[in-house]
## 1
Amino acid sequence: MRQFRRCNVASLILGVLVLVGCASQQESEPAAQPEAPVEVAPVQTQPVQAEPEATDFDNRSRPLMPSGRILATKFYFELDQARLSARDLRLLEMHANILTRNRDRRLVIEGHCDERGTREYNLALGERRANAVSSFLTSAGVRRSQIDTVSYGEERPDDPGHDESAWSKNRRAVVIYR
Amino acid sequence: MKTLICWTALVSLHSLDALEIVIDRGNDNPTPIAIVPFASSNSNGAVSGVISFDLVRSGQFSPLEEENMLSYPSQPGDVYFRDWRVLGMEYVLIGRHLDRLDGRVTVTYHLFDVSAEREVKSGEITAGRERIRDIAHRIADEVYEEITGIRGAFSTRILYVLVENIGTSYARYKLEMADSDGERPRTLFETSEPLLSPSWSPDGQRIAYVSFETGRPAIVIQELESNVRERLPPYPGLNGAPAFSPDGRELAMVLSRDGNPEIYTMEIAAPARRPRRVTRHVSAIDTEPGWTPDGKSLIFTSDRGGRPQIYRIDLRTSLTERLTYQGDYNARARLLPDGRHLVYVHRREGVYHIAWQDLETDEGPRVLTETSLDESPSLAPNGTMLIYATQDQGRGILAVVSIDGQVKYKLPSSAGDVREPSWSPYLDTLSATRGL
């Protein structure tokens, strides 16, 4: 994945602009580089910033993968569990890289649960999920002072439904850049 | 099942934003009682209607319908026992209610045992006119105690959280307090952020709850009379599950300031208010503390064994004992006033129920509820019933079940999703009544 960083920065930005239109937070596989449209003038009038900040975030401050795609910020869990999947760890490593390159950036990690079980236990379980993300990031070099965690337990579902499909979306940790 | 009477006439007495009551099931052998409409210059039937509904909700009584009565006495001399015996009644309650010149009302009642042909209880209560429902609940308590030998818990209140516009970005969380029958709700606090875990002080004058009003959880203590709120300075991480000790001096709570959720106790009146750590289990979740009636131990939920189970810890010796073994999810336990029986959330085949367990004989867990996604059991102060939160067609509702599992009713709200119920202790809302 690293070789993408050596790509022409301008074409990366173009790629991002194209992607923003159909951005999905769930992109996890590196996709083929989109073809750069030939006639997109406005970008070329901007002086290209060579510092890392320019490629780590898009113009709406969303974190980017080295490929230029938007990096997933939600990580899902099994029932009663706070274990991160191997895929999530790879994505979180990219977050860690962004945060170590940008020491001024801070992160809030929210922990959430599905509605099953008791509310206070779920607050604790949500905290455990947020902490799982937080410890991985700190072990990957992010400073503790860059990270803040908060658990909402089952209080803030992403999907208000009451079935397995809703529950699987609600058992999550969310990273929010400040 | 005899109490499956249509109470639509009574429902019409309910205000719109109150919780409604839908009775699912009553006791198999409810006591037949005639509650004669109380004589009154106005508001006919208001007092006796409330009494009737209280007794029906207990599941232990089956009040005679008014149109089936042969007479409507309001004075002891007008009660003809033969009439009531013919109708199969075991008890008759009569009364009258007088508007006084000082603007207050006086309600007098007499309870008769039909087979013994004698008056067994009577009383007179005077209070402001706006307290007519308090008077009715009080009479229901006295009738209930006279007949069952158990103190009545109708003159109690419930706290709960009402969520309006749930699932939208303009959700409102309201901490509500209502009569035990869901009537006269009033909002104690309102915010756009989650509220949970309300609990009562043992004197019923203060409550504690968790509020996310600042975006982070904090424990709030609120005085009911003045509505003065005090937000305890939050520690980093969780600040949750507040529970007053039986003497009202301490608050048990959960803090995760040391890295993971642990149980603490704090003296409320102490100037420095330093939380004292009770549990020490670095990798486990310890939460949902509840006091034993003697105030010497706490019961709590912990996943130190890999799955959430209920434990008890002695506050002096720190000796800890696991109380539940069946099932892989047992949480949020509360002890009955006898200190011997436990109720908690129990998962069975993926369904969350409220279950009961006898700690001395180890009988249980016996599942009390037929609903699913049940949580937050809270006991009536006489230990006969518990209120809990569940779901009905995707909506959060409250429900009540008797400890023997026989009596069940639901309290939905037309105003939104309701959850996190907490039953008050006994409340002395009226000065003692005078026997006649």
## 2
Amino acid sequence: MAVKITIKNLSIMYDSIRALDNISISVEAGKITALVGPNGAGKTTLLKSINGILKPFTGVVLIDGLEVAKIKSRDLAMKVGYVPQSASPYLPFTVFEVVLMGRRPYINWIVSERDIEIVNRILKIMKIDYLRDRYFDEISAGEKQKVMIARALAQEPEILLLDEPTSNLDLRHQIEILGLVRELCKEKKLTVMMAMHDLNLAYRYSDFIIMLKNGKIHAYGEPSEVLTPENIRDVYGVDVFIVDTPFRVIIPTEVIRD
Amino acid sequence: MTGKYRITTRKIFILLLLIFLIPIFLLTSISIGFYKTSLYDIFSVVQHKICGFLGLNNNGQINSRLAAIVWDIRLPRALMALIAGVGLAIAGTTLQGVLRNPLVSPFTIGISSGASFGAALAIVLGIGITGFSVYMVVINAFVFSLIAVSLTLGIARIKGLSQESIILSGIAVMYLFSALVTFLQYIAHEHDLKTLVYWIMGDLAFSNWKRVSIVSPIVIICLVLFKFAWDLNVLAMGDEVAKSSGTEPGTVRLICTVLASLITASIVCMTGPIGFIGLVSPHIARLIIGSDYRYSMFCSALIGALILIAADTAARVITAPTELPVGVLTAFLGVPLFLHLLLRSRREVWR
């Protein structure tokens, strides 16, 4: 058990709102950790603090023992890949060009053979090599998500941060993308953190789950320990019915009135 | 693999073609005019002058009137069109890139109205930064265009130099200086008013070797901006993706805006605000060569130069022997070209 990311007493403020409130946690290397919790619980904020987009108000984020705020953004980009909830270029770029942007931290101006090789290899891994010369704005939402993950992978990161990678995707793409993420995690020893809304998918595809509520960690552990009816009721205010065979299936039944 | 190379080869071919067109346009511009000159005339004058500089013997006698027209008037003017076209187009491409908005031009962030106000102060009130000199208008225009941009960036800084804050404060600053110019026009004497209105239209008629040599260093700034092509590429995906790929959005935006403003201010203070080049060259470039800034910046520079050289030639010729200000004509030449490419392309130009 090796620790990849250490978060100590982290608080993050948006103006006067405390989005993360004194969080401390250690994230395992080479595992998939899912972040769950209601809207506004701080999932995205936590992801953004790990790749330095948001600066800590108090506390520190450490990657391999190094403080994120002190790593140069270019060096950080070689360690951490980030896939935001939604992002698309305002200009028509091709899929190849978008994925090549992931090589930015390694490129000064001239693109090397190696850069092109890496991009081509990642397009194959993500099974989107047939899209390479298509324009990004002409492909489907599921394909776009794969391209964005490919772009982050082109940075050759050790850590991959995914912000709701499966929201607004069809059933097949959800399973396909999470399956790819799991394979990558195993093969490339990637440490993956992903914010999720679908608790069933979080249960199936993650090794650990961090459950957030109002900027605080409500529960942390293996999926079976965290995703219990009690925790879900406390955090979401929803009663659920759980079927435990062969996977755990969580079925929401009723909203709890205060 | 082969696909990528085919596309790259095509892009390089387009660039080479445009580079090849530059001397053709320059020579055409120099030879056309009220006083007709042939290609042979141009070459013999240029050769005569260069040999003169190098202290070599020339046997050939040169018609001094021909020499004056080619060497002292048309050549510096054509070169000024070339440099101004390149500079305005690069500044436009850069600003559209860092502000992630294809409707932005170097003038959107207040440069032209600042310059116009500086010029108006000199022309109408005779107030100059450096006291009276022939270059009072030029220096005033330069200084005030930079004051306008500093004001824009200063206001935007409060909001962390986001793209929206720069555009909106730029528009505010533009209106402020436009109002001041309007006021000066209102109180100006008839003769000064005419001079001022003419200046604001933008013109290359005042080009001479001295001005060309003062403006030419902006080409170096243009080369520095090429260095930012990758940053502009990743910025296209948004600040967060840019940051996560190792580009600092705020820093890049500040440096690029300042450099683009320096380029534009240096040009505009000499020529007056020649509109349209900075707005439309980046679009035309993207339509013919794609969005990747490594290629589109260079392409845009060439397109800007070609349009401005052509427009200036047309401005000299259409109503000969009198001339039109080139600022009036850039749109007449750029719009059809732009619309043709826009309507022909099957794709959206931006999202």
## 3
Amino acid sequence: MIAPPEAPPGDAGVIGRSRDEPELFGAIFDAYFAEIHRYLARRLDAHTADDLAAETFAVAFRGRDRYDLSRPNARPWLYGIATNLAGRHRRDERRKLTALARVGPGAAAAGHEDAVAARVTAEGVRGPLARAVAALPAGQRDVLLLVVLGGLSYEEVAVALDVPFGTVSSRLNRARKKLRKALGDTDPLLDDQEGASR
Amino acid sequence: MDEIRMVREAYGEPAPPTLREMTRARALFTDEAPPRRRRWRLKAGIGLVAVGAAASVAIALTGPGGGGGTPGAPHAQVDLDREAVLAAASKAEQVPAGKYWYSDHITGQSYIMRTKAGTYAIAGAHTEFFRWAGARKGMGEGFWGRDLPARPLTAADEAVWKRDGSPKSFRVWSNDHYYTYTAAATDWKVDRPSAIGGGTFGRLTTRQVHDLPSDPAALAARFLKPKPGDAKGLALNTPRLKVLTVGTLLEELPVSPAVRAGLMRALARQPGIHPIGKVTDLLGRTGVALASDPVRNTATGEFGAPKAEQGTFSSRAVIVFDQKTGALLGQHEELVEPGGPYRAQRPGFVINYVLVRGLGWAESQPKPPARLPF
């Protein structure tokens, strides 16, 4: 590393130095842009993600002076910014989920036939699942999607959303419970027929 | 049950950012040049509809006169099995050799307006999608979308709407908040047309679509049965979900008439799936339909829903086919037992819908229609 010995480790070192040498921030961009874009593209759509991922890094760049250099890993910080920006696109997210509930993704990539079969099977639960996700309070949805789509740990989610660790786990538990309920309730055979015939 | 995995799979895998977008994004903070563009944003992707030009699957209503069926007869039997396959078999060799596949869909959701003039339903979240794709990679593809006006759902709803003063905007409860839909339409906007795309439908290539089996049992085993590795305890193979699955396949893939017939037969044979005779859709087209066993739904006040939106109702999934051609006309969720938010509606009330407005093969690059569907 070129960083002087006293510089903080990891991303924090780069961000710290980028305060004087702005072009160094490009390393943060290069390391995380694709990942942040992917999170936003899944949560909203690819084209909104183009704009919001760009905005995420513009916001981060402008806010690099305020970055807490005791945190070596910039990932939660960037996901937090992206999540806040996504929160302003609530209508887009609702429409995404509405569409998700009705139709499968028009994925561009050619896939293996077995993967398609599996996907189509999974599509069956999309309606109730997407409706349940849409119905979650924003705080619970943010936690859920940071974990599911972003792959963040509870600690990272806590940093990203600036909430206590305990809040993360309780929100996630509540969200999961609602999803399970929504999915379980979709089986009319078990409820109506088999249940009645026993 | 692994709902975390289910959510992850449902969201799918997006296309990565293009080099151009990355360059632009990087320039945003290096060059202070942020020209934000407003573009049509695609919803998660309406696939191609797999019926149309090649339509040749006949569905006959059995009964007096062989194919008549009394309009409105509640339980006219649809002989999907026999007639569909015979007709499809005779036409199976006429697999279209078109160049460009296109599909035109309308999606909408019903919302309830409760006014002094009375209660009526409107169609909101109303969108039309138009997609085309070349049969082979490199022939290009394009994806268009436009918002359609929110509107009273049926003629009866329109009458109450007029008594209400024919408002042009509709504030309605949607999941966990109020939302206002308006009677404004937007222009068609194309979403990142690709000159080098084409040749894939959903996740299948043209070749893979072509190679699908036409045998109903093989299709059912492939698409309508749980797979090892599916999350345990999930209701993956309920009748309702089977209707959605077959509808999605027919919407996404340009399958041959034989495969289409096979999918229809496979669905018709599933337990919990019933022919329900003739159905007239929101575009005024009459077709023959299959429906799932109903599902009970309960809306609680958990997410802040007002009293009027709470309660229990049951609904079923309906898939509608053109009687003469076997073409998919659409699918919708319809009310079976009124209650809850739909306590003032009658059985058969359409809760949400996908209407297939047009699709098929074309010789030149297709363009979306200017005329509004309603």
